[in-house]
Amino acid sequence: MPPITELIVNGTRQRVEAEPETPLLSVLRDDLGLTGTKYGCGEGQCGACTVLIDGVAARSCITRLSSAAGKRVTTIEGIAAHGGLAPIQEAFLRAGAMQCGFCTAGMIVASAGLLARSPNATEEEIRQSLEGNVCRCGTYPRIVAAVRMATRMKLAAHREEARHA
Ligand code: FES
Ligand code: FES
Which CATH number applies to 87-164? Predict the structure, then answer.
């Protein structure tokens, strides 16, 4: 019998029975039913499978389950806050930053990781942070515009919170 690995996925503790070398992407999609994370190249080259592990963007297709043991994994399903869209999701919608949508979950998760550590990320930082995420539809300008919009939305939200504090 495969061993049990514990990890925290989108805030919920999960116990997964699978071989330690199983790709995290397979565990998320096949064992936990979280199919928002996409399988693109399967070789760490496209970013479609991006998740956050303890807040840091990682390619789940080349991350072994054992590497995620005991850690916090955030998938696209865990990005939305309190049942509504997170600012980064809202910004992607407003900017029309998707065509086929296949890269979108990975782009949003990678962007969420960037904004968590750098809420005022510059365009240069955004480009650098997303350069390993491939969009075969070529939607890059709108994606960058969406992430820039999200930085402004977060800033406005913080100002509003401060006003009511
Ligand atoms: Fe993981 Fe392409 S599917 S990087
Ligand atoms: Fe189609 Fe990016 S919107 S791959």
Answer: 1.10.150.120
The residues lining ligand 2, judged by C-beta closer than 6 Å to any ligand atom, are 98-104, 135-137, 139
Q: Where are the domains of the chain?
A: 4-78, 87-164
pLDDT in tens, 37-51: 999 999 999 999 999
Looking from the CA of residue 136, the nearest atom of ligand 2 is 4
Q: What is the pLDDT of residue 48?
A: 98
Q: Which residues line ligand 1 (CB under 6 A)?
A: 39-42, 44-49, 59, 61
Residue 137: nearest ligand to its CA? 2
pTM, 2 dp: 0.94
Closest protein CA for atom 4 of ligand 1: 44
Q: What is the rounded distance in angstroms from the CA atom of residue 1 to the CA atom of residue 71?
A: 23
Which CATH number is associated with domain 4-78?
3.10.20.30
Please tell me the distance from the alpha carbon of residue 110 to that of residue 92, in angstroms, as a whole number.
Answer: 13
Q: Report d(CA 119, CA 24) in Å as an integer.
A: 28
Sequence letter at residue 11: G
Q: In ligand 2, which atom is closest to the CA atom of 107? A: 2
Which residues, in sequence order, are CB contacts of 108 under 8 Å at separation 6+? 76, 79, 88, 89, 92
